[in-house]
Design a protein that fits this description.
There is one protein chain. The chain is mainly α. The chain has a single domain, classed as MFS general substrate transporter like domains (Growth Hormone, Chain: A), CATH 1.20.1250.20. It has helices at about 20-25, 30-55, 60-65, 70-95, 100-115, 125-140, 140-150, 155-165, 165-180, 190-210, 215-225, 230-270, 275-280, 285-315, 315-335, 340-360, 360-370, 375-390, 390-400, 420-440, 480-485; strands spanning about 405-410, 415-420. It has a two-stranded antiparallel sheet. Helix 9 runs antiparallel to helix 14. It is globular and about 80 Å long. It starts with about 20 loop residues before the first helix and ends in a 7-residue tail after the last helix.
Amino acid sequence: MAPYFLRNLVPRREKRNEGRPLLEALASLTWIQWGHFWSGWLAWTCDAIDFFSVSLSVTRLQDQFGRSTHDITTAITLTLLFRSVGAVIFGIISDRYGRKWPLVWNLLLIAVLELGSGFVMTFKEFLAVRSLFGIAMGGIWGLAASTALENLPVEVRGLASGVLQQGYAVGYLLAAVINLTLVPETAETWRSLFWTASGISAFAAFIRFLLPESAIFIRAKEAERARGESTKNKTKVFLHETGEMLRRHWLLCIYAVLLMTGFNFLSHGSQDLYPTYLTNAKLFTDHNATVATIIGNCGAIAGGAIAGWVSQYIGRRLTIIIFVLLIGAFIPLWILPTSFGALAAGAFCIQFGVQGAWGVIPIQLAEISPPAFRATFPGVAYQLGNMVSSASAQIEATGAANLHTTIIDKDGKPKIVSDYATVQGILIGVVAAFVLVVTIIGPENYGSHFEKHKTAFEEGGGRDELEDGEESPSASRPNSVRVMDEKRSTPEPV
């Protein structure tokens, strides 16, 4: 087997567009499969609404607590730091017990903590609640991605990955719209944004409650019951297989964390302080900064969907590389203009590239993950990358506080402002180069049928893996087992 970095970037001819045409595959989906996908998408959308409630409220939070931008961004940093804890907890619970109830309880916990965020009266209380919120938020991505993708046929997973990931951009957009329309009209101002976000998360939990467990877990549990396995024995097997997975895939774990560190720096470096950048460095009003944010997120939604669809034809890594190169090309449009139209166009183009590359990540991580750990492995890698990049907002705030430039204000007078433009341009450019290198040298298991593999509580789950080019994981198994695997190759309605 050739090393990862020697494998071709473009999938072999026989691997491209394998199976049915995309439209035919989409038409074959059952209502349950659609429900699983959109419930995962909605959960990830709620994650974004809840997280960006702070980013969109920085100025109001400064007034509320009498703190600087640097201090307020501490809440963002703490949320990102604690997300990895939640990813481990909820990922393990999901891979051990199933997809449905862990996600339901995860969303309800987020709803409670987001509601509490709107009732705090002191800055210390706010930091404490946002830290706990980070733990709850950390579980969402791995559970949402596995719920959405593992129940779909392989032919639609590229497009589905792009649409799923842009639930985050949709969430940011919805939060921005709420901040633009509801917040200024209420006496509670920023608190109303948090309370509204809490209600949406509770609604997402209700939607997941109405849907059945993932078909793959239902079949696995039925097979375990048929063999007379007890809950205690399944837990013992799960712990053993988890250790086996870590022993065999520790290098892949390190790679995934490095990849997600770069991606999270790209995302948070271009989003978290974007409204602050426009108001402080470009002297936009809060209204215009929010509108530009909405335009940028429209670019993100378009980029994610297009990139996910393209990756089904040219592969995951090559798609990421193309969209990262687009990021570098559009950095000048992001930072140099002074007019609203040009800066909004820059926001659209940069987010088209950033979130286009991001759109491939859910399916890329799912395909390179140890198959039995499709919630834990991607979720923990994602959130550890988040933890490393957690100080991105504070890095930008500190850099801008120490780097100034002179611009002409609306009255035609020169004014010295914090140079967020240069700081963000340098950060995004350096990180884009890092992501490019890490992506090129990394693995790709394009078109993997990970749904054929064992779950984490089945014996051999930690040793189960799908290498690039492997036709079927059941090829070398006894015929009776192979027949069972063939039945499991496409998720069925429950």
